[in-house]
Design a protein that fits this description.
Order of helices and strands: EHEEEHEEEHEEH
Structural class: alpha+beta
Shape: globular
Number of strands: 9
Oligomer: single chain
Number of helices: 4
Largest sheet: 5 strands, antiparallel
Strand content: 25-35%
Distance between the termini: 27 Å
């Protein structure tokens, strides 16, 4: 499966493929485009990525999560291109013996993807303006662009 896609993410199909006889818990996170941000109405988002590097980094993040939590399933996919309001921009699915591991690993994966993987978004607002930005703004809290808030959370 592709970790980076231009196609609309099919959450139902991905969930159907994520059932495993060794897993008692499956967690699906869908990061969806909302209709507002920073006090403005959002028309849509547009994502760009360094696809080769992003694919490699997502694979490494998933492997780290599989090993740390002994997961049956760890999968993630991020869209690039135009993503409309209510559509999924990113999905993470984890499956494990117990729910605690499935939830913790899912949060770990999405936090690392959002903060580390070379994917950039442009928010297009209904007033015609747009704003480019990365997915990570932790430096405003940590004071260091190389330190992320999730590194300080207990996972």
């Amino acid at each position: 499966m592709d970790f980076i896609t231009k196609k609309q993410i099919d959450l139902v199909a991905l969930l159907q493929k994520s059932h495993c006889p060794t897993a008692g818990a499956v967690v699906l996170f869908s990061g969806e485009v909302r209709n507002h941000n920073i006090g403005k109405a959002v028309k849509h988002l547009e994502y760009e990525a360094h696809a080769g590097m992003a694919t490699k980094m997502i694979a490494e993040i998933l492997l780290a999560a599989r090993n740390r939590w002994n997961l049956s399933i760890a999968y993630a996919q991020h869209r690039i291109g135009k993503v409309k309001v209510t559509e999924s921009a990113v999905v993470v699915i984890t499956a494990s013996v117990h729910r605690g591991e499935a939830y913790a690993s899912n949060r770990y994966i999405i936090d690392r993807i959002k903060h580390e993987v070379p994917i950039w978004k442009c928010e297009h607002f209904t007033d015609g303006s747009k704003e480019w930005g990365g997915n990570c703004n932790c430096h405003t809290e940590t004071g260091d662009p190389n330190k992320h808030l999730y590194e300080f959370k207990v996972l």
